Amino acid sequence: MFRALVVLSLFILARVGQVFSHQESGEWSCESHAEIRVRAEFRPGVVTVDGHVDDWKDVDGTQFPLLPALDPDADKAYNGGKMTIKTLHDGKDIFYMLQVDGNYAYSDGDNKKCPSVALMFAVGENATYHRMGGCEQEPDSCNSKTCHGHEVDIMHFSIGNAIPGRLYGGNPVDNGEGNGGDRFGHLVDLYAWNPHCRYLDGVGPTANDSSAQNDWKGAWWHSSLTSHSGFVKEDSPYASNTQPGTYYFEFSRPLSTMDRLQQDVQFTIGKASKISAALWYPVDGKPWHGSAHYSTSCDWIPMDIMASISGSKSEAAVSNPWDAATAFSLLFSVVAFCTSLFIGHRISTSKEIRFTAMDNL
Length: 361
Hints:
There is one protein chain. The protein is of the alpha+beta class. The protein has one domain: Immunoglobulin-like (Sandwich), CATH 2.60.40.1190. About 15% of the residues lie in helices and about 25% in strands. The protein contains 4 helices and 15 strands. The protein has a 15-stranded mixed β-sheet that branches. The relative contact order is 0.18. The model is unreliable at about 1-15, about 15-20 and about 310-320 (pLDDT under 50). One of its GO terms (molecular function) is heme binding.
């Protein structure tokens, strides 16, 4: 049994390594747009994570050009166009929608011939975007002590085994084993200190911890898919390849998780976090490789977790003490007071009302 678990862990880590292999060449150069921010507004009860994005139509998004992550040159940008990121929260969970144009590409069971996306967040105070946390330790020496402060949190979704419109991510089977894996749709929960030291939540270089779990849920869709009644595995590949259209990826996760290993980012309402998004795409039908991904920026993008809907009537109602109920109460009190004065004045000046002594009653 133990040997089987070891083999399974090595297999999972090998698949993670295939996705995130990272080989740089030349000197790193970055010209980020620090003024661009992502805003997660408070909008409860708006989004259902199912891949269909009609419920996002009134939520503002931010567009980002997709440049090669290891060589952010505008001349080498993703030829499908920009990625739009939308996000909101309901006070308990945070939601993301990634939208990017691309011809339909799907090969059942082959992740590298299908699009793939990832979100990365800074956890440690010293975590850099470049080199996935930036810890200088080698794979044989990186651990929670030598790389403390460089932790990044990663969610990665490879759709080669995921049915469009179905929910993937955290599930009782993998969470029961105490790791961030997803054996059904490969929507996995990871952490890293650098590109060569990355693991599923709960899995480490020295020992595993059974308290970890995958906190993410997600689904995907493509605009060329015509059926909305629900696909099953036998419908694969679901549509004809090379059809033009748009990919949609929806995700959710609790604002706060039960992580005690410094592997999950913890979101706080009213404060900012650091985010980045990436896309892998089989350009011209050719399988992508791990380091050939596009990124929304060559540095962290600030993400504000808003306390309310910015500029909306609901925000004004929360911040303005003179709300409708208060105004009505004040008006009613004034009218009642004036009415009592008027009646008292009429009684005191009327000659028809005679004084009657108490003794005569």
